[in-house]
Write a structure and sequence with these properties.
Layout lengths: L2 E5 L5 E7 L10 E10 L2 E7 L9 E2 L1 E4 L6 H13 L8 E9 L2 E9 L12 E7 L1 H10 L4 H14 L6
Parallel strand pairs: 3-8
Antiparallel strand pairs: 1-2, 3-4, 3-6, 4-5, 4-9, 7-8
Length: 165
């Protein structure tokens, strides 16, 4: 059972949790959190596992915030679980919040040289580091899961100065 905090459309916590499998009411929202990792001028992207929604499409590390964890705690947990990168709150920069279909996406940035990735096989089937021109080509080709493409496009202006071509 994976419980998530439930919020209203203005990001006010409604005081209860729901199992991930439970259908949400129209007025209910949950939170996902993710981390864009830039290493040596390239963005870490991962390919979604075959059992996931948007299977075999590219994304950056992201997942549901569960239990009573904060979005930051959820982002740090997902980063460790999915790609084996350990970071602290001091390592991340908050990029922003997107209100999406029945969820709020909290996006963070980690700029650090990464030498080792440990993929969580149930979530990730491949990874690579890509520069700005390759990100643009992947966006144009539709290689990213649609929600991820929107998130990358939204924050590209903020991350572009840290990316190599």
């Amino acid at each position: 059972m994976e419980l998530r905090r439930i919020y209203d459309g203005n990001f006010n916590y409604l005081g209860y949790l729901k199992d991930r499998k439970e259908e949400l009411e129209e007025t209910e929202y949950f939170v996902v959190a993710g981390v864009m990792v830039i290493s040596r001028g390239k963005l870490l992207v991962t390919k979604r596992a075959k059992n996931k929604t948007f299977a075999h499409q590219w994304e950056f590390t992201m997942g549901s915030v569960v239990g009573k964890e904060s979005p930051l705690e959820g982002a740090l947990r997902e980063l460790k679980e999915e790609v084996g990168i350990t970071a602290t709150d001091r390592d991340l920069t908050f990029l922003g919040t997107l209100k999406e279909e029945q969820k709020f996406s909290k996006i963070f940035l980690l700029v650090r040289d990464v030498d080792k990735i440990k993929m969580q096989k149930s979530e990730v089937e491949d990874y690579k580091f890509v520069g700005k021109s390759e990100i643009d080509a992947m966006l144009k080709a539709g290689d990213f899961a649609p929600p991820m493409a929107k998130r990358i496009e939204t924050y590209m202006e903020k991350i572009a100065p840290k990316l190599a071509d």
